[in-house]
Write the structure tokens for this entry.
Amino acid sequence: MTQIIFKLANGDIKVVQAQNGVNLMLAAVENNISGIKAICNGGCNCATCHVMIEPKFFEKLPSKSPDEQQLLAKIRTKQPTSRLACQIMVTSQMTGMKVIVK
Ligand code: FES
């Protein structure tokens, strides 16, 4: 299990224990993180799992796939550290990672 810290749109902080090997979207949904709708259920089609990743962790994440890049490019609220949570697999290297949900 890996500790992930979500900052919600209302400013609340929620610390969860995410299972390694599942994607960050599922970890959020399983822990009732509000703001992650995941309409396409991880299919990289909806962008309703858009999050911003703490910069020091963002730099270490695996690269975005072309599909993720294309979808992110369409998001008006995209930031330099934006990712789609369904495209990120939780690993122990993410312990303490802060994830901002808009
Ligand atoms: S859940 Fe739809 S793109 Fe991530």
